[in-house]
Amino acid sequence: MAVGRTARTGEKCPESGVWKVVGEPSTTAPIAINNVMPPYGDKAVTWQLIMLA
Prior knowledge:
By secondary structure, the chain is mainly β. The protein has strands spanning about 5-10, 15-20, 30, 45-50.
């Protein structure tokens, strides 16, 4: 897998690493493979992988 790939809230995390919310406001979070991608600010968001773990 590659840095830069994306996943949506509710999907299974495709790759362990540090993920960042696309857009504003943003945050980063370490998420492990196969965990469910979380919402942010009570909203469904797109997460982008910024660093592999």
